[in-house]
Every structure is written in C-alpha cells, then in structure tokens.
C-alpha cells in the first residue's frame, strides 16, 4: 500500500497548483475532456499574448518617427488631389508629436527597420534552440519563463519613455532579447497541444485554436493604439505586464501532457485518470536507459516530411508576414474608389486579412482531416493564393467592397497553409512513426519548421521595403512567385499522398469485388 500512496503523491506533485485547487474544490479529479479544454484555453491565451506584445512596436512607430516616409508620401498624395484638410491635420499632428530621438532623425525609418530585422532574425535563430530545450525540460516552466522574459523586455522598451533614453543600442539590444524570449512560445504551445490531441481530429482543432494569432494581432493593435495618446511607453508597458501575468496563469494551470496528471495514453486516445494505485505495473523511477530520449536536431531534420514542409513554410511565411507588416501601409497609399484612405481606416480594413486567415486555417485543418492529406491541402491553398494575390493587386482598387472581399479571400488562402503547417503538420511530424513511439520531438520539429519559416518572415518585409520604392507590382510578383515555390516544395509529398489514395481506392474495390454474394 505504501507504493500506491507514493505513486498517487508523485502524480499529484506534478500537477500544476491551479489544477490541484480545482480538484480540491470539486472533491474529485478533473475529467480528460476538462483537461483538454484547459489546455486549449491556456495555450490560446498564452500565444495570443505573445502576438499582442509583438504587435506593439508597429503601433508606436508613428510616435517614434512621425515624419516617416509614410506621412511624407501622404502629404504628396493629398497635395496632388488638392485636398487641404488632411495636410493641415498631418502637419498639426507632427508638430504636436515631435517624435523620439534617435528615431525622429532623417534615418529614423531605417533605424526602425533595423529593430524589426534584429527582432525577427534573433526570433528565427532562437526558435531552433528553443525547440531543443523544450524537448528536454518541463514545457510548463519553459513557457512560463519565456512569457516572463518577453514581458520584462517589452516593459524595458517602454521604460525608455520614462527614463528619457535616446540611445539606439539600448532599444536594439532590448528588441533582440525580446525576440529570443518570444522564440520560446510557439514550439512549447504546439508541443503541449500535440500531447493532448490525437491525429484524427488534430487539423480541425488546431485550425480553430490557431485563431490566437489573429486575436493577438488585433487585440495588441487595439490596446497599443488606445494607450498611445498617454505616451508611447504605455503602449509597450501594459502589453508587457499582461503577458507576464499570462505567464503566471500558464504556471498555475497548464498540464503539459496526460501522463503528468495521471492519465495513460492508449493508441490515439487516452484513458480516464487513474485511481490511487490502479494499473501500476512499473517502478516509479526509471533507469537512465529507460527514460525516453529527446530527438537530436539533425535527427529531427531527417524525419520524413520535415524538410519539405519547413522550406514550404519559408515562402508561405514570407508572403504572410509581408502582409502583416505592410498591408496597412499599402492600403493607405492605394487609390480605392478614387480616393485615399486614412491610416486609421486602412488599419481597420487590414484586420479583414486576419479574419480571412482564421477562416482559412479552420478550412485547411478540416479539409486535411477529412482527406487525410496534409500536403495536398497545403499545396492546393498555396496555388490558389496566386490568382488571389493577382486579383487583389489588379482589382482591389475598384471599390471598398471589392477590396475587402479580395483581401478576405487572399488572407484565407495565404494564412490557411501557414496555420496548417505550423500546427497540425508540426504535431504530426513530431510524433512520426519513424520515432518509434518517442514523443520527445514535438518541440524540436515545431521549432525547425517555424524557425525556417521565420527566416522567410524576416526576409519578406525587408525585400518589400526595397521593391515598393520602385513598384508595388514588383512586390506582388515576388509574393506570387513565393507562393508558387511554396507549393512546389510539397510536390513529392503530394504525389505520395495521391498514390496512397489511389492504392487505397483500388484495394477497397478489390475487397468489394471479392465479397461473396448471398443467393436468395
């Protein structure tokens, strides 16, 4: 009996404190579905806050550098259209908000671009290391530390406002460290969700769950914009405090896997929580040779499908992040229905791209579940994104309604495969049959795929800055070519899935033809 109570205590000690409190209040263990709901809710909240804190720097740019090319171009456009009111408003706003040194200098826009590039570069590189660490540590602790660190450096960036800091290197170092801590988020949350949900419904569930990206972008924009009038420091400090608080929620409530709360995995499903001592057939402490070994970095690259999907995401994320960073700017500088839209209106309209992305992520996940073919689904969406991008560029100026409709469709096809690859595909490959039952590759595989994609995310906006100075048509050509290359990287996997479907159909046909016919 002693060993039974020890086992029960061991499982209970591994449970997050918040779950222990819930079970103490209810006087009985939480069900498996309740644990799943908690996992989805807590990880959704966590990564939405990662994106919300990441979005803040794009909002405060107008306060740091009010005389950016964005404003200058608007002045030229408004003067061309002989509308004096916007010019007066812009001049008045610029005079009342003189910017923030060193970003208010002529090279201020370039400095802001360097901050973005430094953040995304460190984020992409850090992703590879975060995956390796995530598979070797307690993901609940690892994610908590990542969120606290993200909150700290987001807050320190805002502290420059109150401390009157005008040294560029300060903001550069803070952004680089923020990018490093941000890289802990995605591998961790995907690994945790992958631990709790079987492959059969993973695409649909993760497609819905992936809406946290858009929710975070939208909420981050709204919070930072609302606080901007009180001083740009508040637009950084408050989101920093929010994600730090969310990190504490993760620490208190997130169960990393079913085993950590006393639930055994059986195939693709899980049994109910055990009663004290029930079904205990192995020692509580395993020897080093019995402990499941985490998969190495190069070994994870060799898992079938990892490399094609990683390089596909490189180009898919290049397209998606170009829209994330440049879409409001593009809308405000494009004549739509014979007029230019304000920055506020352009920003509001751009959220429809994210909404389309939510729909696309859910559709891609559901379709891939029904077909049992992730590569076919992802490649089809990427190929459909090409005519969507062409139509948006060439017909989006006709009217607001046309622009909104085409933007929504473009967001659906661009973000659909991006969401599918970074969620369900990563989780599938992290539990690939070649791993022989090992589940210690989820974070590493997720980091490899999304880390490679994040390199593309850094390059896309950078190239757009140069190409847009010449022609926006060049930017859209780059995006369409990138979408094509993304689809082509999956060609071998698509052929394999199509072949498997044909063989499956032929096998069913043979079974049907060989079935005995009952005579009446």
UniProtKB/TrEMBL annotation:
Signal peptide: none annotated. It comes from the Eukaryota. Residues 41-498 form the Major facilitator superfamily (MFS) profile domain. PROSITE patterns: MFS. It is found in: Membrane. The keyword Iron-sulfur does not apply. One of its GO terms (cellular component) is membrane. Pfam families: MFS_1. GO terms for biological process: phosphate ion homeostasis. GO terms for molecular function: transmembrane transporter activity. Keywords: Membrane, Sugar transport, Transmembrane, Transmembrane helix, Transport. The keyword Zinc-finger does not apply. Gene3D superfamilies: MFS general substrate transporter like domains. Its main location: membrane. The chain crosses the membrane at residues 30-48, 141-162, 168-197, 209-230, 236-256, 306-326, 346-364, 371-390, 402-421, 441-463, 475-495. It is a multi-pass membrane protein. Belongs to the major facilitator superfamily. Organophosphate:Pi antiporter (OPA) (TC 2.A.1.4) family. PANTHER family: GLYCEROL-3-PHOSPHATE TRANSPORTER 1-RELATED (PTHR43184:SF15), MAJOR FACILITATOR SUPERFAMILY TRANSPORTER 16, ISOFORM B (PTHR43184). This is Glycerol-3-phosphate transporter. It comes from Cucumis sativus. The lineage of its organism: Eukaryota, Viridiplantae, Streptophyta, Embryophyta, Tracheophyta.
């Amino acid at each position: 009996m002693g060993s039974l109570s020890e086992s029960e205590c061991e499982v209970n000690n591994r449970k997050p404190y918040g779950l222990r409190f819930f079970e103490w209040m209810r006087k009985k263990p939480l069900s498996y579905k309740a644990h799943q709901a908690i996992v989805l809710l807590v990880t959704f909240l966590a990564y939405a806050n990662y994106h919300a804190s990441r979005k803040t720097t794009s909002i405060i740019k107008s306060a740091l550098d009010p005389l950016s090319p964005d404003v200058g171009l608007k002045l030229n456009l408004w003067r061309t259209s002989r509308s004096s009111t916007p010019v007066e408003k812009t001049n008045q706003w610029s005079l009342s908000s003189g910017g923030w040194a060193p970003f208010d200098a002529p090279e201020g826009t370039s400095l802001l671009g360097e901050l973005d590039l430094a953040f995304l570069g460190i984020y992409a590189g850090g992703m590879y290391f975060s995956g390796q660490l995530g598979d070797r540590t307690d993901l609940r602790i690892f994610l908590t530390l990542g969120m606290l660190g993200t909150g700290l450096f987001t807050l320190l960036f805002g502290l420059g406002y109150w401390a009157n800091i005008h040294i560029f290197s300060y903001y550069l170092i803070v952004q680089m460290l923020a990018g490093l801590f941000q890289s802990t988020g995605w591998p961790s949350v995907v690994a945790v969700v992958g631990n709790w949900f079987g492959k059969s419904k993973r695409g649909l569930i993760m497609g819905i769950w992936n809406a946290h990206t858009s929710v975070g972008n939208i909420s981050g924009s709204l919070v930072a914009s609302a606080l901007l009038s009180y001083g740009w420091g508040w637009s950084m400090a408050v989101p920093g405090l929010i994600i730090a608080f969310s990190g504490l929620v993760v620490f208190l409530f997130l169960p990393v896997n079913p085993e950590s709360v006393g639930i055994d995995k059986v195939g693709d499903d899980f049994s109910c929580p055990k009663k004290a001592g029930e079904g205990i057939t192995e020692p509580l402490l395993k020897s080093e040779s019995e402990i499941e070994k985490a998969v190495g970095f190069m070994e994870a690259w060799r898992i079938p499908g990892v490399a094609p999907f990683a390089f596909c995401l490189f180009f898919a994320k290049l397209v998606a992040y170009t829209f994330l960073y440049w879409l409001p700017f593009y809308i405000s500088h494009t004549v739509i229905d014979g007029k230019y839209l304000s920055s506020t209106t352009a920003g509001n309209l751009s959220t429809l791209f994210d909404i389309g992305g939510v729909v696309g992520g859910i559709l891609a996940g559901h379709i891939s579940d029904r077909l049992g073919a992730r590569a076919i689904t992802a490649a089809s969406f990427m190929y459909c994104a090409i005519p969507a991008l062409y139509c948006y560029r060439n017909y989006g100026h006709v009217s607001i309604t046309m622009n909104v409709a085409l933007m929504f469709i473009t967001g659906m096809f661009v973000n659909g495969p991006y969401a599918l690859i970074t969620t369900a595909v990563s989780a599938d490959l992290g539990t690939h049959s070649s791993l022989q039952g090992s589940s210690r590759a989820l974070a590493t595989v997720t980091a490899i795929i999304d880390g490679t994609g994040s390199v593309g995310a850094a390059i896309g906006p950078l190239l757009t800055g140069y190409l847009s100075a010449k022609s926006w048509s060049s930017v859209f050509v780059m995006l369409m070519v990138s979408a094509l290359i993304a689809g082509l990287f999956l060609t071998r996997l698509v052929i394999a899935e199509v072949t498997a479907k044909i063989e499956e159909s032929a096998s069913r046909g043979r079974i049907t033809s060989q079935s005995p016919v009952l005579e009446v």
